[in-house]
Amino acid sequence: MKTLRFKIAAALEAAAGWGGMRREISCLAIGGVSLLISLFDLLPLPFDAAWAAIILCGVPIILEAVVGLITAFDIKADVLVSLALTASVITGEHFAAGEVAFIMQLGALLEDVTVSRARAGIERLVKLTPVSARRLTAAGEELIPAQEVRVGELLRVLPGESIPVDGVIVSGETSVDQSVMTGESLPADKGPGDEVSSGTVNRFGSFDMRATRVGEDSSIQRMVRLVQSADAGKAKIVGLADRWATWIVVIALSAAAVTWAATGEIIRAVTILVVFCPCALVLATPTAIMAAIGNATKHGFLVREGDALERLAQVKRVCFDKTGTLTEGRLRVSAVKSRLPGLTDEELFSLAAGAEARSEHPLGRAIVECCRAAGLEVPEAEGFKMLPGRGVSAVVKGRSLLAGRAELLSEAGCAPDAELTALAAKLSEGGSTAAFIAVDGEAAGVIALSDALRADAADTIRAVKAEGVTPVLLTGDRRGAAESIAASAGIDEVHAECLPEDKLRYIAGCRSANSPVCMIGDGINDAPALRAADTGIAMGGIGSDIAIDAADIALVNDDIAELPHLLRLSRRMMRTIKLNIAFSMCLNFLAIGLAIPGLLGPVVGALVHNAGSVLVIINSSLLLGRKGK
């Protein structure tokens, strides 16, 4: 809900065409100049120039405090500020009133700067929802809106189309891009009896399917609802000044009342209210957060939520997605094994690359790119055929080539023998994907591809553990691949084959067990978990727009090696905030001790406690120069 300050700004914006932030800055600038004129009596005015600061900076504070008290009996720091402002004006201490109002609005502006911008992630996700479907009837094929599909109806999906609803394939073979749901960039081969999900993309062959879940029950719609509701239970950080406002108000009013009753001098009571204004307390948090955000930006982090670092300082677990987060997010050839006498591994690699040169499948493209990167020839192919869900066939250098699944070779009468099958199984257990190669009607070997672990991933995990935080692998990939990557990175806790709701369930479990959790991911399927986690960090380079919009922090250059620095920075920021608060409270009580016997007047008292605000800002600014190890 917008504050009254924002509502007033909105009204002025309609009249004068100013944006809310521009108006706040303008009011502060005018208020600051007016205070200087008042303090040094620079202009011969018929009224005190400090009135400009009181009206522009103080009136919104008073109105907001009154509205909060009347509508919800909500006692915040602005209640005490309003009392001090009113008392100062009544007693003629206009400069003190204007100075307090100016400092408080400066703190409010700093808080506003750290507020996150509007998110468009849900809108982008909704755009992924298929809008049409091809329904099969006795009269033939008809194009209908996707929301009109009913359970049990037969649908046809052509290459390149999004799958409109959840269902089961009844005929045809294909490869489906399931990255929306699982985060894995490698398409999954599908055939009769296999399940497919709405929102995923049919890459190659056409197929017929029977609808099983439609409308609001479909996978993509469940994803939309997850993202919309994931942060409903995320507690927002409340400003410490507001959190303790009731006690501050009670102490200040009690001290002022007792002093007035004991001395009969209202000026002393006003001084107590002025020096007890929580200016430094209000500045303690936003100044430290802004300085820490500035530091984080220098290390490649774009902090989108003002209180994200405050939440990050509390985390006990960091959940990593696999593909694109711990790994580089692209396939590389990890092994080539030839089984034919007279055909070397390099020759087999070259022939396979020639056969895959016209393929659009990610496996085929990876084989071609790695072959060229290795300096090997990629010969021209003839008679190229794409066999959806199975592989490719071609003639390369006069030799007949098959590359793809074991079933493709079996259909051609050259099924891989037990030894070659065992080799492929062993490679798969290590997280690789194996492609079988047949040459001239004989099983010739296997090429393994895998997503390589980032070079700095293991060091990053060790540093995270050194901070007392438990790393967790949370991925939609196969268990074998997940466990292999986790072992290489040094992660002990692994959760594989996770759908978006599984990740969300794990995050919710951690939070309900009072174990604050940070999620790091890059895919659309990570968006609900990124939104639900205490702190969500998205890979800004390789990551999807939806994941970035759902996260609190974006890692612009995808350098996860900076993560330990961010953890340390967030904790140092919290220590700075606590030091600022302790200092400001001690200064306030000292000033009260001097105000009660009349040693401080309202103007000097305002200067003293505002000097404390300056020291708080200086202490917070030290975070800007803090370096990572």
TrEMBL record:
Record domain P-type ATPase A: where? 128-228
Under what name is this protein listed? Answer: Cd(2+)-exporting ATPase
Give the GO molecular function terms: ATP binding; ATP hydrolysis activity; metal ion binding; P-type cadmium transporter activity
The Swiss-Prot or TrEMBL record describes its family as follows: Belongs to the cation transport ATPase (P-type) (TC 3.A.3) family. Type IB subfamily.
Q: Does the keyword ATP-binding apply?
A: yes
Source species:
Candidatus Scatomorpha merdipullorum
- Which key words tag this protein in UniProt? ATP-binding, Cadmium, Cell membrane, Copper, Copper transport, Ion transport, Membrane, Metal-binding, Nucleotide-binding, Translocase, Transmembrane, Transmembrane helix, Transport
The UniProt entry, under PROSITE patterns, shows: ATPASE_E1_E2
Any Pfam family matching the protein: E1-E2_ATPase
Question: Which subcellular locations apply to this protein?
Answer: Cell membrane
The membrane-topology field of this record reads: Multi-pass membrane protein
Question: What is one Gene Ontology biological process annotated in the Swiss-Prot or TrEMBL record?
Answer: copper ion transport
Q: Which InterPro entries match?
A: ATPase_P-typ_cyto_dom_N, ATPase_P-typ_P_site, ATPase_P-typ_TM_dom_sf, ATPase_P-typ_transduc_dom_A_sf, ATPase_P-type_domA, Cation_Transport_ATPase_IB, HAD-like_sf, HAD_sf
Gene Ontology cellular component list: plasma membrane
Checking NCBIfam families in the record gives: ATPase-IB1_Cu, ATPase-IB_hvy, ATPase_P-type
EC main group: translocase
Reported EC number(s) for this entry are 7.2.2.21
Q: Where are the transmembrane segments?
A: 25-43, 49-73, 244-263, 269-294, 579-600, 606-625
Q: Which reaction does it catalyse?
A: Cd(2+)(in) + ATP + H2O = Cd(2+)(out) + ADP + phosphate + H(+)
What's the domain of life for this entry? Bacteria
